[in-house]
Amino acid sequence: MKQLIYKNRFLRTLLSDETFIRWQYQHRLNKPLNLETPRTFNEKIQWIKLNHRADLMTRCADKYEVRKFVESRIGPATLKRLHGVYRQPEEIDPAALPEKFMLKVTHGCGQNIACRSQAELNWKHIRRLLKRFLKNNLYQHGREWAYKNIVPRILCEEYLEGRPLMDYNIFCFDGVPRFVEVIADRLGHPRVNMFDLDWNLLERKYE
Question: Most Cβ neighbours (<10 Å): which of 94, 97, 101, 163?
Answer without folding.
Answer: 101
